[in-house]
Each structure stands twice: as structure tokens, then as C-alpha cells.
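Most newcomers find our protein records easier to grasp once they have seen one. A record pairs a protein's sequence with a compact description of its fold. An example says more than a description, so a record of this kind follows:
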Amino acid sequence: MTSQVHQTPANPPRVLLAKLGLDGHDRGVKVIARALRDAGMEVVYLGMRVTADQVAAAAAQEDVDVVGISVLSGAHMRLMPRMVEALERHGLRGDRESGDVMLLVGGTIPDADVAGLKGMGVDGVFPVGTFTGEMVQFINRNLAR
């Protein structure tokens, strides 16, 4: 199953947000969820302590355009390859022609890790301190392609 791009006001972008692993801090991702909703997007927040497979299954079920993962634990280089693989297993990544789900990660991410994350298939990286407006613009600009 592949995601359809939802770009009209009647059919806004659908975004799934989650916290992988044992990271127990969710205030930031809740702020992001509200900002994306305020920008007209439909947001599904899975909560904390979910697995990559749970996120991918929910993304397929919810027919989302974007999966956003919040990581404040420092485990992003270990967790994001699992997320990419889970999305591929669920048929949501791997074939750009069919409308891959956009994968984003945000949180405590050193600049030195950004290229590695993008190399493994993450579309956008948003370190702590990124303004929510930048995230909204990134999603809208890249879904419009």
C-alpha cells in the first residue's frame, strides 16, 4: 500500500507522529502536533514507547503522507534504520514513483549525524530549536513535488 499525497484544503496532508523506544519526553512532539494541526494538517500521534513496526503499520492503516519521529534519547542513529526498514516492509518506502511516505526525525540530533540520517533514507532532520514553521514549510514544499 502506498500513500496518496493529500494537498487540497479539503484533503490536507496527513502526518503521523511518534516516539520510538524508551524515550519518555513528549512535550516537544505535542507542540509540533499542535503546530501542524494549526497549519491545516491532519495529525495522528501514536504516543511514546512504540516500535518501528507499530509506527509503520499505523502509517499504512492511516494512509499518511508523512511519518515524523521525535527522539530526545540520543538513539536516533540506532532507531531510524529500523524505522526505514519497517516502512519498506509495509510497502511505504522504496519506490519513489509510487508516492513514498515522507520520513522526518527531530530532537536531540548533533549536526554531525544529519548526513548519516539522510543517507539512510530520512527525508528531513529537525534538531532541537528548529521553528515549527520551518517544519510546516518543509512538509508542504516537499509534498508538492
Summary: Helices lie at 27-38, 52-62, 76-89, 111-119, 132-143. The two ends are 20 Å apart (CA to CA). Residues 76-89 form the longest helix (14 residues). The first strand starts at residue 14 and ends at 18.
